[in-house]
Amino acid sequence: MKYFYLICCLFTVLSCQTKRAIPKKPSFLIGKWIRINAADSIKTYENWRVDFTGFGLSLKGKDTTFFEQLRILEKNNRLFLEVSGINKTPTIFQFTAQTTTSFVCENLENEFPKKIKYYMDAPLLRAEISDENFQLDFIFEKIK
Questions:
Q1: What's CA 55's distance to the chain center, in Å?
Q2: How, if at all, do strands 124-130 and 135-142 pair?
Q3: Spatial contact of 101 and 117, defined as CB atoms under 8 Å apart
Q4: Is the separation of the CB atoms in 38 and 130 below 8 Å?
Q5: By the 8 A CB rule, do 118 and 127 touch?
Q6: What is the pTM assigned to this prediction?
Q7: Average pLDDT for residues 89-101, to the nearest whole number?
């Protein structure tokens, strides 16, 4: 009889645990964006597809000066931003904060940036990349 009560208590405790909600990917990113706060000679674009893959691209005239591949992925009910094409291996940033119109992700091991923040400032998309000493701001306008 003791074992029966013990098993009942165990089932009760396990059934009371709440499951962690699966985070939603930031749909506000989807679209084609052009940076509006860059030097006139450089055009910077970001393109996010509905599968949450995309790229960042900077052009000086017809020459590509910067290119990165972007992807938001989910592992173990957590979201991550993967940036590739800059280093030999992709750099992973873990989401540390999120709302329906913003997110912050961090990788404190990365040289720069350590923190990436995206947020809507309707109708603009803003991004900040930073470490403890420096911040770079990007302001994007949606391409129609």
A1: 12
A2: antiparallel
A3: no
A4: no
A5: yes
A6: 0.84
A7: 97
Pairing of strands 115-121, 124-130: antiparallel
Write down all domains in the chain, each with its CATH number in brackets: 24-142 (2.40.128.20)
**3-class DSSP state of 129:** strand
pLDDT tens, position by position, 3-60 = 444 444 444 444 555 555 668 999 999 999 999 999 889 999 999 999 999 999 999 9
- What are the residues facing 34 on neighbouring strands? 45, 141
Q: What b/e string do you get for 25-39 counting C-beta neighbours within 10 Å, with b at 16 or more?
A: bbebbbbebebeeee
Report the distance separating Cα 64 and Cα 55, nearest Å. 13
Instruction: Identify the three-state secondary structure at position 2.
Output: helix
Angle, vertex CA 58, rays to CA 54 and CA 62, nearest 5: 120
Using alpha carbons, list the distances in angstroms from residue 120 to 2, 89, 108, 136.
Answer: 58, 29, 24, 16
